[in-house]
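Notebook, p. 212. Picked up where the previous page left off. The plan for this session was modest: take the two constructs that came back from the sequencing core last week, fold each one, and keep the raw output in the notebook itself so nobody has to go hunting through shared drives later. Recording the first one now, exactly as returned: residue sequence, then the structure token string.
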Amino acid sequence: MGRSLRVFILIVILVGCGGGIPGALPIGFLNQTQHSDADLWAIWKTAQQSLARQVDLNPLQRSLQGVPADLRPGNPLALGVKPHQLRVAAKPDVASSVLFAATGVYRADPTGLIACPRPCNVRYAAAYSWYTRQVTRYAASWEFQGDNFALIVEYEFENQILEALGYNMRWR
């Protein structure tokens, strides 16, 4: 049997067994929230539309250092970016006592914050995203805080989209 025929048969077997093409993850979410997939899609679409209008590259830097905004024209390519098995999940809020011991800042429980792993620019945040692992985490206490949940997750979805488009994420 020729080499190209063996490769073809192997590809057919992999695709038939659900292996698919390596690196090509299905579109959608790994939804580990108390919200529906439809809710997450609505938030994703809002994030896409926001970035198609305007790109803000340094909201964190402005809040920490008071520098001018780095605003760019909207990018219509944002409308075509899709999540590929993006895991969206809550993480337990950091305890008030832990937050106070680490930062000297007091917030009543639930704090609304989670530890933000490196390379975050801050130690604690309401949410964070990992791009290579396709993960967005948020503080569990935000789950049913009305529009706040959508706003926090929308910001993280914007980050996922901007990363996919190749933007510098240092101050996001």
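Okay, moving on. Second construct, recorded in the same format:
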Amino acid sequence: MLLDSCLAGIIGGLLWLDRYQLLQIMISRPIICAPILGFFLGDARVGFAVGLLFELMWLTSPPVGGYIPPDGSFGAIAAGATAAMITTRTGLDPRAVAFLCFFVFIPVAHFGSKIDYFLRSRLAGLAVKAEKTLICRKRAVFFPYFASALLQGFVLAAVCLIPIIYIGAYSLTVLVSLFPNQLLQAMIFGFYMIPAFLAFELFRNIYDTRSLVLFISGLSISLLVGVFLTI
């Protein structure tokens, strides 16, 4: 379990860089990064199920200007990896495990926003040093600053993710073995209720026809794929 946690932390740290430091090709979105973690840990289905819930949770809260919302990507990485480790070890229904991990790891998303703020503060100092270098030398080499920023982001995310995933996977694996079957069935039902509730909240904030069409189309595709993967 420790080796899997380390692997998840390393992969998760690399994916987390896409949030705002590198590429920004959307692979850090919860609905993408969680299935990737699930795939490497043996169960992409539960990763997709977890990613769907985290994606809907903060879909209307992008980081704009100085506002840093709860880091759904960080939470989805931790929850997706943990959920995959639980299902591969217990054989439980992915929907029940996704429901459990979603609720347990919501605070981790808020913790991720604190990490995000801390890293941005550190990189601001690095940017000042790079600017001074540019002023002093016309042919300044910026690669060391760029590489240092990426390394700091990766190490910070990985170091935080590994213990979170390990503790979460170990404790929840023990915990779910004590759950009665009725509770597991209720958690499966809850898995379908969460997207319905979150979709309703998103629907209330849509006022133009184009956004409404895109929203309904995206939600329908996501739900169809989710049902197909969790059969």
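Notes on construct two before I forget. The chain has nine helices and no strands.
Flagging for discussion at group meeting.
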